């Protein structure tokens, strides 16, 4: 479910930013991608939570 949400139209922008940051880090940048990761995970959680709670009822 998380993978499907990560690939959804709502979250693809966040995934793109994380991928770009990861590429910069792998190329030698001294930054970290924590902020980009948290933005993506927040979007994924917002997408997945209603689906999870709907199945629990």
TrEMBL record:
The keyword Electron transport applies. It is found in: Mitochondrion inner membrane. Its main location: mitochondrion. GO terms for biological process: mitochondrial electron transport, ubiquinol to cytochrome c. One of its GO terms (cellular component) is mitochondrial inner membrane. It is a peripheral membrane protein. Pfam families: UCR_hinge (PF02320). This is Ubiquinol-cytochrome C reductase hinge domain-containing protein. It comes from Syncephalis pseudoplumigaleata.
């Amino acid at each position: 479910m998380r993978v499907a949400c990560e690939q959804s139209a709502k979250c693809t922008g966040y995934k793109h930013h994380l991928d770009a940051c990861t590429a910069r880090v792998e190329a030698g940048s001294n930054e970290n991608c924590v902020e980009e990761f948290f933005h993506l995970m927040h979007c994924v959680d917002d997408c997945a939570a209603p689906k999870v709670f709907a199945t629990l009822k």
